[in-house]
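Complex 316.
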Amino acid sequence: MIIHKKTAVVTGGAGFLGSHLCDRLINEGMKIICIDNLLTGDLRNISHLFGNKDFTFLHHDVTNFIHVAGEVDYILHFASPASPIDYLKLPIQTLKVGSLGTHKALGLAKEKDARFLLASTSEVYGDPAIHPQTEEYWGNVNPVGPRGVYDEAKRFGESITMAYHRFHGLETRIVRIFNTYGPRMRLDDGRALPAFVSQALKGEDITVFGDGSQTRSFCFVEDEIDGIYRLLLSDTTTPVNIGNPAEITIREFAEEVIKITGSSSKIINTELPEDDPKIRQPDISKAKELLGWEPKVERSEGLKITIDYFKSILDR
Ligand code: UDP
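Predicted structure with uridine-5'-diphosphate bound:
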């Protein structure tokens, strides 16, 4: 009996989340077409897949027309700069991949009659006025602030995804991804976790922005990918938060990193970036109810795995 393998296109497949998604989908028995322009992605994240006959890599910028031969069952649109430092450095590319790129990826999904999943973000809630954030909350975003290029691009992405769903009857899914960490994060992406870990490992001062009272809720990558995979296979077309509700202040988080690494680094307080959200915690009731999903990996465990990864990168 010939088993027909499903084919999934992953845009941004050489990135942090995209590459873990490629791994998971291959393990689930799918063929993968990974598309990336390597602006913030890295071939080292997918080099282990190059010998796999079910894996194809296309070096392409998805803001331009996307050609893919043959049948496609799923399109997962993960291409975008995604750390505050990256999208501040690449504001136009961030706006283009969230708007033109999402449009091209949706066009491909329509052409192939494929199911489309958009990687959206907790940033659609901006600096939230409700806590924790439920999917019903419409957000508090400054469109003309520095983070607006990412937040508004993702909000547009959600909007055009719903338009393709309503107008063209396309099967669509939207995941709102909260702060996620794990192996293959870039050490230099400017996010709190890689910054704190590399500073701690090098014995440098730990730069906590502002007084560190702002909160985040960090999800280990394996949990995040599991939630996304379940959403892909579900019949839920409205947005779903996937993140770990374990909330912590950034100052406490810096102290935790110092403790786990056994570092002698000291915390210093530097300027708080403009529009930095003061609080962030996902309400995951919807994911629990509709997907039977909740995170399993404790921060202490996930941090150890991630710190070991960063150690191996620094040793290279
Ligand atoms: N942050 C910090 N020091 C750093 C990098 C980030 O204190 O070196 C803070 C940042 O201002 C934010 C939080 O840590 O309040 C999480 O930042 P990150 O860049 O990881 O992601 P965000 O949730 O802001 O997108």
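The mean pLDDT is 97.
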